[in-house]
Amino acid sequence: MDFYEKMNVEPLINASETYTNLGGSLMDERVLQAMREAGNHFVDMGKLLDQVCSRAAKLSGNEGAFVTTGAAGGVILSAAACICGKDEELLDRIPHLKDVVRKEILVFDGEFLDLIPYWKLIGLTGAVIRKVEPTVEAMLQAVDERTAAVFLFPATLYEKGIPTCEEIIPKLKEKGVTVVVDAAAQLPPPSNLWYYTKELGADLVIFSGGKHIRGPQCTGLIAGRRDLTESCRMAASPNPRIGRAFKTGKEELAGFITALELFVNEDPKKRFAQQESMLQRMQQILKRTDGVKTELIREGRLGTYQPLLLVTLPDGMTAEACNRFTRASKPAIDVGVYGPEFGMPENLIFLNAYNLKEGEDQIVAETVSRFVEESYKTKSSEA
Ligand SMILES: *Cc1c(COP(=O)(O)O)cnc(C)c1O
């Protein structure tokens, strides 16, 4: 019996996003194989961690790297590193930092800050989080001797009404402030792995391993300045410090580094084209459905390099109802519903091929089409 059958949990087709609550992404067979092999032996974990991290630094085009349990774990470890550096006594004391002066982490107080829960987790280190008015001037003025770092959250949505990384990072670097970028979901293109650090000058950048990199769900990457990534390593498991709670196992380390290798060696244009042709096939099917309008766009939901198919349902049909229908279908499908924060029409869904297997595109398009047809029928029987 299949595992999900045994657990009585029904698998679904992911036509929406690398959402954590759907399981993020699926790992390549080679990633799963590396995990199985890693699980066959005991190993000196310190040595494995060092090797995996130095390989991750090379692959991501950064001076240093640390592999952790997820971007959220990465945010917390980075904050610890920015406050404590390599001071072992301070690292031991986290989160009890009452008498430490330089422990403020600054974030922009943008309209969408509450959509990003991750900055709050910084508080677990004992840091004081200060929200700053979202202008370049206000941020530069807020920096003083108490500032340990500025944390930034790039994405077209989160940056609405606040300065972009391009605007603020060079200015902060002129002032000598440590800058950390949480770019968890800002992939592809793979060049973003070094864009924020090498091109813009940020000190650290953080990515999810379980989203677009297609590694294990519970992995993440911190990359950038080596002294800081080494400090993350000191704060982390197997040491008895804050990062003991974010333990990566040998299997996850093996899976992550294999996935990262595949991700950086893959031609992003080729992957884009594969997704685009899946979306075009869905577009062909949906076009034949009465009253449905489609548009293929060349930018992901948060501004990343991936195509999306926007589908406008006939008037009176909502994206929410469509997703309820597809989730209840066999096989169950999750289609993209924009949250209210995107300010999109309520009859607009998005379809994303990033997580679709060959052949699933047709099932998705036909199911959405069936939703429209059945909604027409219900309407006319009510009339
Ligand atoms: C998804 C996400 C995270 C959390 O990533 P995990 O790898 O699931 O821990 C953190 N920050 C941002 C901006 C994200 O989109």
Can you tell me the overall shape? globular
**How many beta-strand elements?**
12
Bound molecules: pyridoxal-5'-phosphate
- What is the residue-mean pLDDT, rounded to a whole number? 96
Layout: helices, strands, pairs:
Blueprint: H1 3-6, E1 12-15, H2 29-38, H3 45-59, E2 64-68, H4 71-84, H5 88-93, E3 104-108, E4 128-132, H6 136-142, E5 147-152, H7 165-174, E6 179-182, H8 192-199, E7 204-208, E8 220-224, H9 226-235, H10 250-265, H11 268-287, E9 293-297, E10 308-312, H12 319-328, E11 332-337, E12 348-351, H13 360-382
Parallel strand pairs: 1-11, 3-4, 3-5, 5-6, 6-7
Antiparallel strand pairs: 2-8, 7-8, 9-10, 10-12, 11-12
Helix pairs in contact: 2-10, 3-10, 4-9, 11-13
Can you put this structure into words, describing what you see?
- With 383 residues, the chain is of the alpha/beta class.
- It has 13 helices and 12 strands.
- It has helices at 3-6, 29-38, 45-59, 71-84, 88-93, 136-142, 165-174, 192-199, 226-235, 250-265, 268-287, 319-328, 360-382, and strands at 12-15, 64-68, 104-108, 128-132, 147-152, 179-182, 204-208, 220-224, 293-297, 308-312, 332-337, 348-351.
- The strands form 2 sheets. Strands 2-8-7-6-5-3-4 form a 7-stranded mixed sheet, sandwiched between helices. Strands 1-11-12-10-9 form a 5-stranded mixed sheet, sandwiched between helices.
- It is globular, with a radius of gyration of 22 Å.
- The mean pLDDT is 96.
- Bound molecules: pyridoxal-5'-phosphate.
- Pyridoxal-5'-phosphate binds next to helix 4.
